[in-house]
Specification:
The protein is an alpha+beta fold. The protein contains ten helices and five strands. It has two domains: 124 residues, no CATH class; 101 residues, 2-Layer Sandwich (Beta-Lactamase), CATH 3.30.450. The protein is 58% helix and 15% strand.
Length: 233
Amino acid sequence: MDGEHPRNVLARRLGDIAVEFQSKRDAESTLQAIVEGAVAVVPGARWAGISLIHGRSVEARVPSDPLVAELDTLQSQFDDGPCLDALRDHHTVLIDDMAAESRWPRFTQAAVARGVGSLLSFQLFVQEENLGALNLYAGVAGAFSDDSVVVGELLAQHASVALAGSAATAQLSSAVASRDIIGQAKGILMYRENLSGTDAFTLMVETSKATNIKVVDIARWLVEEHEAGLHRP
């Protein structure tokens, strides 16, 4: 609505998404929301997808574009690539300039030929021999910033819960609680909207995507609004 205060728009949109989100209960739709949210809110991201690693093969899940599934298939064929190495070495991989990267020459050449300029890959979980990753791609070199890493890590933590099941909820709670403002906002939503911790975090991601406001800024707004309400007569 023209002239409406941004905070009022955010509050109204948050309420709308809370209602819509009640129907998103299965893992597949949650993963889809994570991927869509990654493209919408992670600075620099143009394409995204969840990868599952089974032994030496990579399975693409909920890719935002066929290009993502194709790149996963290439890593399986080559038995080499940033996603595989990131997961096996238990760390985040950033390729700032795909054309200048020398670690995975066959993969990077294929990616450049398909218009990919940079990549950011996060490990999701490790369970026996099954591994998962959240992969973000950009069409230009140097697309991902420190802020991209922070937001991507939050999305990856949530995706871990959806992929690994309820047993990973404690891991997510611990990781998110370490980011104090987001942990507080999650608790407020859990109480106010009658949501689980996992659903409360996804609600913030969905709202971020819909409003183009960063997750951490939404969390800060929620906490400020809550604290202001405590002092009202």
